[in-house]
Amino acid sequence: MTFNFKIVGSIGILFCLLLGSGSLRAQGLLDQLEEETKKDEPKREPVMATFKGTRLINGHSVEMPAKGELLFIISHRFGKLSSGLYELIGLDQATIRWGFEYSPTNWLNIGVGRSTYMKTYDGFIKAKVLKQSKGKKPIPLSMVLLAGASIHSLKWQDKSRENYFTSRMDYYFQIMMARKFTERFSLQIMPSMVHKNLVAKANESNDVFSLGIGGRYKVSNRIAIMAEYHWLVPGQRLPTVNGLQPRSPLAIGVDIETGGHVFQIQLTNAQAMFEKGYIAETTGNFFKGDIHLGFNITRTFSFRKFEPKKPKKIRG
Amino acid sequence: MPQIINNINTLKNNIMKKSVVLIAFTVMSAISVMAQTNTYFTRTGHVSFFSKMPIENIEAHNRQVSCMFDISTGEFAYKVLIKSFEFEKALMQEHFNENYLHSEKYPKAVFEGKVVNLKAVNFAKDGVYDVEVEGVMEIHGVKKSIKEKGKIEVKAGKITTKAVFFVALKDYNIKNDKLENIAENIQVTVDVVMEPYQR
Known about the structure:
The complex is a heterodimer.
Chain A: H1 2-26, H2 29-37, E1 44-46, E2 69-80, E3 94-102, E4 108-115, E5 120-130, E6 133-135, E7 142-152, E8 169-180, E9 185-196, E10 207-218, E11 223-232, E12 250-258, E13 261-268, H3 275-280, E14 292-302
Antiparallel strand pairs in A: 1-6, 2-3, 2-14, 3-4, 4-5, 5-7, 7-8, 8-9, 9-10, 10-11, 11-12, 12-13, 13-14
Chain B: H1 2-38, E1 39-51, E2 58-70, E3 75-81, E4 86-87, H2 90-100, E5 108-115, E6 127-139, E7 142-155, E8 158-168, E9 185-196
Antiparallel strand pairs in B: 1-2, 1-9, 2-3, 2-4, 3-5, 5-6, 6-7, 7-8, 8-9
C-alpha cells in the first residue's frame, strides 16, 4: 500500500510541476525577464548633481569634477554698486580669480588659483567622504572635506621691519554637508575655520570661525537660483581689515548651465573669491549697497580615456 | 526462511522506490531541458547610441542590457537601464540622465515584441538570418509600436541579435535643447549575445 501511495504522490508532484511550468509559460517574457534581473539592479545608487557647479557662489560646493576631468574656472567681481556714477556703479573696477581644478580619482580633487585680490595664489584639496545615495542602503547626505592655503605676494609695506615669508600665508578648513532634498532643492551646511598667520594687532585672534549655509532651487532644467551665507560666529576677536571689522559674506545668484559650461551670475558683499578673502576679509555691508556684481564661468575638459565597462562574466 | 523473504521484499520495495524517484527525475529534467532550450537569455547585452552633429558627436554604451528570447514563438523582451549608459564625459552622462531621459522617473527602457518571419531562421544551423521584428518600444515613459529590420546570428549554441535603427527624440517626448548639439534622430545599435536560459 505504501508503494502505491508513493506512485500516486510522485504523479501528483509531477502534475504540479507540469502545471507550474505551464503557468510560467503563460507569464509574459518581460515579466520573466524582470524577475530574473531584479537582483542585478544596484542596491545603492549615488544621487546625481546636488549642485551644478563646484562652487555655490563664493565658496565650494560638494560637487567635484569626475575622475580625469579638468575644470577651468574664471571668476570676476566688479566694484561696489554703492561706489556711485563716477565708478559707473563699480563697473570700472574688477577683481578676478582664475584657477584649475583636477580630480585624479572620483573622491579626490586638487585645485590652484590666482587672484588679483592681494595678488594671491591659492591651492586646495577636496576629499569626498560620503556621497548621498539611495536604494536599499541609503546614505542621507554628501560630505566633503576641504583644506587649503593661500599666499599673497604683495610687496611688503614696511621693508625696514623683519618680514617673514610665513606672514604671507593663511590656511582654511571646511566641512561641507549637503543633501539633495528634491530634484529642484538642495541644501548645504559648511562650518569653516580660517587661520591668518599675520593679523594687524596683538589682541586680534588669528582664527576666524564661521558657519555657512547655502542652497539652490532649480527653476528649470538649466537655471537655478542660488544663495550662500557664512555667519561669522559672534564673540570672536575678529582680525580687522585695514581697520575695518569683517562682516558675514552674503551672496545670491543664478546658475545657468549649457553643455560643458556653467555660468554663475551673482550679487555679493564679498570681493575676494577664495576662502581667507571672502570669509575673513569681507567688509562691505550688503544692505547699504556694498554689493559687487560678479560672475563665475567654468569649463570642463575631459582627459580620461573613454572605455565603456568591459562585459561582465555571465553568471551560472 | 520467512525472514529472508521479508528481506527480499524490503529490497524489492527499496528498488521500486528508487526507480520511481529516478523516473520522476528523468521526466522532470526532460521537461526542464525542453523548457530551457526554447529560451535564450543574457544580462550583458550591448546597446549603444550615436548622435552625429557638426560640432560634437555624442556616443554612449550600455553593456548591461538584459534580454530574453523564446525561439519557439519568436517573442522577445529587452530591458535597458538608462543609468547604465556610459559617456565619454561625465557631464554628458549627467545631462542625459537629468535633462533628457529623466532616469529618476523613467529608470528603464524596454522593447517587447516578436520576430515576424520566424520561419526564415533555422536555429539548428549556424548562420546569419535577416529578420523583421515588431513590437512596442518604451522610452522615457512613452510607448510606441515599431517595426524594424535586424539580423539573428546562430553560432555555436549562442544566438546574437543585431540591429541598427534610428530613434526620433520627438517620438518619445524627449525635449531637444537648441543650446546643445544633439541630433534629432539618434542612431541606436543593438548587439546582444544570448545563451540558453538556465533557471
